[in-house]
Design goal:
Blueprint lengths: L1 E6 L6 H17 L4 E3 L27 H13 L2 E3 L2 E6 L2 E9 L5 E6 L25 E3 L2 E5 L8 H9 L4 E6 L2 E3 L4 H22 L3 E5 L1 E4 L9 E4 L3 E3 L5 E4 L6 E6 L4 H8 L2 H4 L15
């Protein structure tokens, strides 16, 4: 499968961000991409640095002009397109939602982010209700896509349940970066941990992983911090965790990565982790902590 990824630096101009994404999607399709994956909340700045009710104005319905735009782009480009939107489900009810569009522009399915962080500069619990759709892959003409979002990346349970439900690829739209007060060593540890844990999901489940992050500095509107420098580093890993592509941490990228979708079958024959799971002994995983 030819997988197109777009690592973009955003501005406050939503229309311009969207226009640039549309042009890049079309260019990747012209170069042979079959699947295109966008970063988390790709239409706007990462507004969760502050808690402001005004930011709810950025949310859109699933039948909005925004979803129609990406549906149209997917159809014109003839690609399966993974998007990430701030969903207004109802008054006072919002989600961080990924919509996946088929090559003809129809909606193949959606995923609502399950794990919601609440850290300095990442105040997502103020905005997003946890997802209620479970860990179900989205069936497309290219296969079953296990779409998860950002903070979901750190949870092996999420990746495993996608795999157990038949996902053929794990996909993570993402918005993560550095705070300026962190030391260079700490910044390196954070980024490497982020890459390593997702490569581990690839290994443990015998599946390729596609992760697309945003890039560039975004100021803190409150002025309480020095903002976030998103570390880019979008990557694609194979089913043994092998890096097929790693983007730079400081510049925009649009590229296509070839992923051998047949390789997972062979890797799972060598390393039959699903066969050897002791499922009768895992019941305590549903507990918060074992005292």
């Amino acid at each position: 499968m030819k997988v197109g990824i777009i690592q973009q630096q955003n501005t406050s101009d939503v229309c311009d961000n969207r226009r640039r994404l549309g042009e890049k999607i079309m260019a990747l399709a012209s170069a042979g991409a079959q699947l295109v994956v966008l970063q988390e909340l790709h239409d706007s700045l990462y507004f969760c640095q502050v808690e402001s009710t005004d930011n709810f104005d950025l949310a859109v319905g699933l039948d909005s002009d925004t979803s129609e735009f990406y549906s149209s782009v997917a159809a014109k480009a003839g690609v399966v397109l993974v998007t990430s939107l701030f969903e207004r489900r109802a008054t006072g009810l919002y989600h961080n939602t990924s919509l996946v569009f088929e090559k003809d522009g129809t909606l193949a399915g959606k995923y609502r982010k399950m794990h919601i962080p609440d850290d300095p500069a990442y105040y997502e619990k103020f905005y997003f209700t946890p997802g209620d759709l479970g860990f179900k892959p989205i069936e497309t003409s290219l296969g079953k896509l296990g779409v998860l979002v950002c903070w979901d990346q750190w949870y092996p349970e999420a990746a495993r349940l996608m795999a157990l439900n038949g996902a053929e690829m794990l996909i993570y739209p993402t918005a993560i970066g550095w705070e300026s007060s962190d030391t260079p060593d700490e910044k390196a540890r954070q980024r490497e941990a982020w890459i390593t844990v997702q490569r581990g999901h690839a290994v443990a489940n015998g599946l390729p992983v596609v992760t697309v992050n945003r890039v560039g500095h975004e100021a803190d509107p409150s002025g309480m911090t020095n903002g976030i420098s998103f570390w880019g580093s979008s990557f694609v890993a194979g089913p043994q965790g092998e890096l097929l592509y790693l983007a730079p941490d400081n510049s925009e990228v649009e590229t296509i990565v070839d992923v051998d979708m047949k390789r997972s079958e062979q890797v799972r024959r060598w390393w039959p982790f699903l066969r050897d799971r002791r499922i009768e002994n895992y019941g305590e995983l549903t507990r918060r902590f074992i005292d």
